[in-house]
Model the fold of this input.
Amino acid sequence: MDKGCDNLTVSKLTPLLDSLSQSTIKKFDINIPKDKISIHVKDSSNSDNNVEIIFEEVFSFYFINENEVLSKKPHFNSTKLNSIGYYEKGIGEFANFDCSDEEIDEKDISAPNFALELLDSSMFIEARSIKIDDKRFRVGYPNI
Done:
């Protein structure tokens, strides 16, 4: 795990993420040039409390739509965030399907360390750090 002066312990991250389950997504932004994904949620336990979640130094992300109608554009705003979790060793290895097995190398494989479960879809994110409001956690990338 990377170390830094503004880091909080990972043991405090899981309860914080758990407290955001069942929140409502108000804004969802993927900023590829800045390697950043930000999500603004309204806390389910406190209707006046808005929380900003920022995934920083994003290496990869995967969106899986469980809805059979793939022609519909995914709509994140006002969607329930059923759960959000951190996995220190990663969720598993994801690879680019556009490559044959012989062509796959290290840059085509990632190990997402965050999972978001939405209403009818999931998102897997590999990020070096996460910031929740003013609390930053530098968790590092999982080892592949």
About this structure: The first helix runs from residue 10 to 19. The CA atoms of residues 24 and 80 lie 5 Å apart.
